[in-house]
Amino acid sequence: MKKDIKTLRDKLLTITRLGSAVALLGWDEEVNLPKKAHTYRGEVQAQLAADLHKKMTDRSFIKLVEDLNKAEVFDALTSGDQVIVREVLRDIERAKKIPEELVKESAELTSQAFGAWAEARQKSTFSIFEPYLKKIVKLNQREAEYIGYTESPYDALLDAFEPGLTARKVEDLFVPLTSELKKLIQQAAQQKIPTIPKATYDRVAQKKLNEAIAAKLGYDFEAGRLDVSPHPFTIDFHPTDVRITTRYSEEDFWEALGSTIHETGHALYQQGLPLDGFGTPLSEPVSLGIHESQSRIWENFVGKSRSFVEYLYPLLIDYFGKQTIQYSSEELYAWLNRVQPNLIRVESDEVTYNMHILLRFEIEKSLIEGDINAKDVPDLWNAKVKEYLGINVSNDALGALQDIHWSHGTLGYFPTYTLGNIYSAQLYNSISKAIPNLSEQFTKGNFKPFLAWLRKEIHRYGRTYQPEELIKHATGELVSSKHLLAHLESKINKGE
Ligand code: MG
């Protein structure tokens, strides 16, 4: 048995190493790839991904895990090894339920769908993408049937991104939150939107500032690097190699800095995973929602706080010069926290962002449950934007075609964004109780105790607990949206 668990750990390590190689090709593709190299790179990645899938679904590998899961064997394992067996089995079972022909069909469809989506978005013509979305919905419906569910087929999809999440749980969290947010958005519409004077922010200075802030927050540049890519992201190979990207705009320094802080949050989670369980679920992030909570807590609760802005303000003057920073720290704070409905999800503020997620959740669930068809999506989308945000969608590129997710064949991903916001608010509430002088420390640029709390309560556990259990364990409370609502209310009502 000891030998078997050792064999399992070794096999997992091999799979993880191969996965790192695939991931590195992906990083290189986003950051460095020559224009003509995309097709060949795609072929290399597809081949390696297929090899990886083979290793994961190899019979002897599955048998090894299933044998370790037999009661008399399992009970004798250490608690860490039990986590490994339980979680690997979870991954295998999902993979096993989906027939290979569906995986292949889905890969072929999504490679075409991506091109169709890109063209549809460029021409702002939903009908170009519609037949692909129709097929993607069908494939996801089939997948849900293979996976199985009790209440809604959408549950089977959600579970892939957030173990244990169901449509009902999403509704229980989102409905009370968003019905209050609708009122807050109407209230915010009556208020004057803060602005700051236009300025040009030197790119070289921005790069230095972004690096300095990431390092100050705790990002280890000896175990990572910061590069530029069209869409900022974090990619991990090992806790000693976690890379982030950002993108610079000369008109708005926050576009890069906000992204850098967000990605730093993701990266701190990866850099903080335990080294000794590397290759196994003990050293893997538990879910997309928890991952997003780590980025949002730094971006929104640290980065947009009054105390952080007080810390940042003199640095802005140092890096860009007094002649560039023609506004006060207080004006900057108000501008960073402005609430203004935007048609584009990724450009939205903390309050309205969640309405974007609600409408995507409602549309995806209706599609999967067969209540609506792909062709109904744009009208429904536009009506919901009008209802939730009070604005008109002028074209599909700014509406139902704005996100890449569906073109990748992915449904059930969006709710994890708001879930990340909900988790982050709940975690922040607990941290601020555990560390009473938190804002004083932020003002001084001391983020160490804050990071130490996250390391101790979240990062070190890997996949030991399921997401809901992890939040309960860290905060002593069941997952609830009340902390996020309180946080957003105070932003609008008290300007805090
Ligand atoms: Mg993120």
How does this model look, in words?
With 496 residues, the chain is mainly α. It has 2 domains: 2-148, no CATH class; 167-493, Neurolysin, domain 3 (Orthogonal Bundle). Helix content is 65%, strand content 3%. The chain has 21 helices and 3 strands. It has helices spanning 2-31, 38-57, 59-68, 71-75, 79-97, 100-123, 126-147, 153-161, 167-190, 203-217, 253-271, 288-302, 306-320, 329-336, 350-368, 377-389, 415-434, 438-443, 448-457, 467-475, 482-493; strands at residues 226-228, 234-238, 241-246. Strands 1-3-2 form a 3-stranded mixed sheet, sandwiched between helices. The protein is globular and about 65 Å long. The relative contact order is 0.12. Bound molecules: magnesium ion. Magnesium ion binds at residues 262, 266, 292, 295.
| Second-tier CATH architecture of the largest domain | Orthogonal Bundle
* Helix vs. strand class: mainly alpha
> What would the principal axes of the Cα set say about the shape?
globular
Instruction: Report how far the terminal alpha carbons are from each other.
Output: 57 Å
Across the major sheet, the strand order is 1-3-2
Give the SSE string: HHHHHHHHHHEEEHHHHHHHHHHH
Q: What's the CATH class label of the largest domain?
A: Mainly Alpha
Number of domains: 2
Number of helices: 21
Q: Kindly state the mean pLDDT as a whole number?
A: 94
What is the CATH fold-level name of the largest domain? Neurolysin, domain 3
Number of strands: 3
Task: Give the percentage of residues in beta strands.
Answer: under 5%
The helix fraction, in percent, is 55-70%
The low-confidence parts are: none
Strand count, sense and barrel status of the largest sheet are: 3 strands, mixed
Bound molecules: magnesium ion
Rg calculated over all Cα atoms: 23 Å
